[in-house]
User: Fold this.
Amino acid sequence: MTLDIIILEDELPYAQQLTTLLREWGRQKNIALSIRHYQNGVDFLAAEYEDDTLFFFDIDLMGCSGLDIAKQLRKDGFHGYIIFLTAFSEYVFDGYHVQALDYLLKPIDREKLGRCLQPVLKDLEGSCYVYQAKSEIIKIPYHKIMAFTSFRHYVDIITQIPISASNRNICKTYRQKITLKALEQRLPAEFVRCHRTVIININKVMKLAAAELTLSDHSVYPVSESCLKSVRHAFGKLLD
Assistant:
């Protein structure tokens, strides 16, 4: 397997450090890496990328903002992983508005990088939910699933998969005849019940309040009192 990575960082020492740590991680996980580095936004915007490219963006670039570039990528329909690099922790929450996977404070910590890459690793390992309907069987990567919501005897699978290459801003929803209770027993740990009718992907949670949570696509789901403790615990582990 090969992972395509693009680093946008104007300070060469940090780009070199990140590249070294990524190659070390790749060797440990037996993953081939293709790493490209750009020092400015102009060169980066001329680059080609795929839907599964992993981006590392410095937030505070000379002459432009990594946040603005990430916003443009999202407007263009990119739903893949973006990780921000920053020397200032106060910028961290800005990344939530562009559905960032995580952030790394510079200089980069090896263990923190490894934790950031866990969802990416699961994707590469082919971790999928198998959706079965009357006429089809579809494998949906777990990292592409936002939430499962129940409706009578059915469950809607809310995804980040574009409905077509030409319409990337509208994503697919699959409906399956199954109970939420039966479904919950099949899901990995990142899927957490937040309400009797909703299971969310905790990796997609950007904001948690007492009675609701907001996912990275700005959708809002209720949090019941009985589920609040477990949701807080799962969300807190992401911030460690």
Observations:
- The two ends are 29 Å apart (CA to CA).
- The domain at 129-238 is CATH 2.40.50.1020 (OB fold (Dihydrolipoamide Acetyltransferase, E2P)).
- Residues 12-29 form the longest helix (18 residues).
